[in-house]
Design a protein that fits this description.
transcription (chains A, B); about 350 residues; Rossmann fold; 434 Repressor (Amino-terminal Domain); 14 helices; transcription regulation (chains A, B); DNA-binding (chains A, B); 12 strands; six-stranded parallel sheet; about 15% strand; LacI family transcriptional regulator (chains A, B); Peripla_BP_I (chains A, B); elongated; DNA-binding; alpha/beta; homodimer; six-stranded mixed sheet
DNA sequence: GCCGGGCGTCGAAGCGCTTCGACGACTATG
DNA sequence: CATAGTCGTCGAAGCGCTTCGACGCCCGGC
């Protein structure tokens, strides 16, 4: 274990000089710097993280809280997590992975121990029990997702309301008058994770404005559940000609079951999905979809956190990413439409 | 920021006493302990992670290196990552998330800086470039996956060779004589990640022993690719009556395309998958499958790492988890079989 | 009644780094 | 030519914790 002192001795300078070479916080003459850098390389020196954290009260670590559940939108989460890790590294930070399991206790532990300099919290619920603690902590925090009350918080999320509206518009333009929304699993609504509700709200409002009828049904991501949901939808609204799906796991079952029922996509029914690009392009039909910009969300979250750490960011800031609808092969003019 | 010294003053004891109360490394009388614990609670004290790491040269952090690619077996990885995080917490460790992006440099950085006490590496390639560094590091390391040479390494993995053999046996018993293997994407084989090859090897060997013909084709997880693969398989071996799939993303396309071609599962063709339980039970047909025990792998990896840290584990230890085949509704007797 | 040995507690010495003030050696300025 | 300012470097003081040796104290044994 090479220490800074050994590097200093090897280079014939004092410890503080080595430190300043490393941090660049004071000017160092070129020859000295080179000598020090050479010694560092030659000895294979790596600063000790603990000592550095203790002395500077900065750990250069960003904590990321991911939900414990592995049953939902996993690819999205993973993509966010990886984007967070990658972006954090590019800013000189490492990422500490916390699971929701510990709940608020994890927040307390991390902020209390100085383990991390900032915190990124995923899967925020509308009335999240971690919020009060996050408020109290002097640690910069960024939420991915939107709680009910965003006062004093920094949040990043896809603008799901606009997403819903966008889907409604697209389908209305194509002449559809009866749209069915296949939502997330009931559990998602029960947890009040916000995004599902917001999509629905956007859909409802815009559909209302455009005179389109909307039917919403929650749905698990299995074939059985999709089968039931589908029957109920067509029983209740036989004139349904379009679907909006927000549950990744439900997409394949939906397409598959529609096909089995002899309903062609997009000739008989149109389908618009809210899902990651990859899912949309790899489904059995190339799906018209609004992408969930997971990478972008992760990246933004880190950048906001870093900005807050540098003191250059406003206290409160809600970043809603504008949705983009990509037309592919699953949506077309409504059957009876002109 | 409450410090240990303040707790000590508040409780009327010395700092070392508080430290010993916290660590339990020396006996403390009950009244003193209670007084200290009470002060800790009252002041809301949390030990500073950096100071602790510096003084004890233990960070209580386990580093987890996950592959950067988000294109493959993502749910499995996520499940492993979460199991690692959860298990680590239950042993008093936090988890640092590293992406493969930095490659060997990340290993050097983490081991050099004392950021983590141990390291868990996922997605190990047969001739992984990180291996020499991991060997050199005095940090305990556990690999999830099997490199070509395991000398001196601790590894955890599903026994994919046995998995392949198990699939072959199951299908042979049902009377199938021609089996097609739908493998991972070509990129997986190019990276030499081992597990795909090992499954194939197990399949080949056992199939050979049982007199069953085997055809292997790599396949991307898309419908187009699956479509092509399927045609080529039936062109080459029209008598194929069974499939083994190891690519999660290929499962839905496979089932869907078979159905479209009018081949019933399991009446005309049987399908056996190697995938997480959840995928097997949520597909359009409940799949006979060998589960990938992601949680178990994550848990084991952490436990091995912790054991190594405690000094109670052998240097070299390869843990191969025995595969279990669960018969569901996608496999049945071969059409012509007695 | 005296001595050896636990047991419980304390003081002090670091762990390796950052950072602040100080200080010598220059350069620019009037 | 004296003086103020700048630049590059150093020394020392911690950051908050762990841990080792030391030191009373009280107990039991003879």
């Amino acid at each position: 274990m090479v220490t800074l002192a050994e590097v200093a001795r090897h280079a014939g300078v004092s410890a503080s000089t080595v430190s300043y070479v490393l941090s660049g916080k004071r000017s160092i003459s070129a020859p000295t710097r080179e000598r020090v850098e050479h010694s560092i390389k030659e000895l294979g020196y790596h600063p000790n993280a603990g000592a550095r954290a203790l002395a500077s009260s900065r750990s250069n670590i960003i904590a990321l809280m991911v939900p414990l559940r592995t049953d939902m939108y996993v690819p999205v989460m993973m993509e966010i997590a990886i984007a967070v890790a990658t972006t954090a590294r590019s800013h000189g930070y490492d990422v500490l992975l916390l699971t929701g399991e510990e709940g608020p206790a994890a927040v307390r532990r991390v902020t209390g121990s100085g383990l991390a300099d900032a915190m990124i919290v995923m899967d925020v619920e509308l009335e999240d029990e971690r919020l009060p603690l996050l408020h109290a902590a002097r640690q910069p925090t960024v939420l991915i997702g939107l709680p009910a009350d965003t006062v004093g918080l920094t949040c990043v999320d896809l603008d799901f309301t606009a997403t819903g509206a966008l889907c409604a518009e697209h389908l209305a333009e194509l002449g559809h008058r009866e749209i069915a929304v296949v939502g997330e699993a009931p559990a998602v609504y029960e947890r009040h994770t916000g995004f599902a509700e917001r999509t629905l709200e956007g859909l409802r409002r815009r559909a209302g404005e455009l005179g389109v009828r909307l039917l919403h049904r929650a749905c698990e991501g299995s074939y059985e559940s999709m089968d039931g949901t589908l029957s109920r939808i067509f029983d209740e609204r036989p004139g349904t000609t379009a679907f909006v799906v927000q549950n990744e796991a439900a997409i394949d079952p939906l397409l598959s079951l529609l096909r089995r029922q002899g309903r062609a996509v997009p000739e008989d029914v149109s389908v618009v999905a809210v899902c990651p690009e990859q899912v949309a392009t790899q489904a059995s039909v190339r799906l018209t979809s609004v992408a969930i910009p997971a990478q972008e969300m992760g990246r933004r979250a880190v950048e906001l956190a870093v900005a807050k750490l540098a003191g250059g960011a406003p206290e409160e800031q809600v970043t809603l990413l504008a949705p983009e609808l990509t037309v592919r092969s699953s949506s077309g003019r409504a059957p009876g439409a002109p």
